[in-house]
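re: ur question from yesterday

yeah so i grabbed the chain u mentioned. its 174 aa long if i counted rite. heres the sequnce exactly as i have it in my notes:
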Amino acid sequence: EPMPAAALVPWREAQDWVRNYLAKNNIAVGQAIGIHPGASLRHKMLKSDQVAQIIRGIRAEGVPVILIGGPADRSLIDEIKDIFGDPLVPSFVETLPRLVGLCTYLRGLIVMDSGSSHIAAALGCPVTVVFWHHEFQVSVPLGNNVSVVLPPPGKGIESIPPSEVVDAALSMRR
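ran it thru and got these structure tokens back, copy pasting raw so excuse formatting
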């Protein structure tokens, strides 16, 4: 007999926390795009100024942005906010249950090659994954709503135009 499909469901406390967080920041459910710029290794990450340009591009389309990061990402998020220069970009320091909860309420998530991409995809959240290499097939999240952004052949992640990430993320829908 086949096994039932696995389901990932956010805890009630996490759902409540996320709803309160969105309300406090005047963000409607399903409206914001999250950006998780962190990854386990620096070479897997966009530069802070690239992330700031992505935020500008998404916000120029009237879409709110939430910067997402765990405790190890605090300095990275602060650096991005300093470059961006707008204190109105809400940041969200996650616990795993809160990340799961947030992914159920986002319009989409932009993420580097990290575990957050798999969590979001498992929840059905549209995911734009920015990979640092062309051998991404072994680590791309499973799901029907995953888009991949790659650097040009022979180049690094820093060569990805922020506009390409913006376009990919804005084209994703639940």
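noticed a couple things. The first helix runs from residue 12 to 24. also Helices lie at 12-24, 48-60, 74-84, 96-103, 115-122, 162-171.
anyway ttyl
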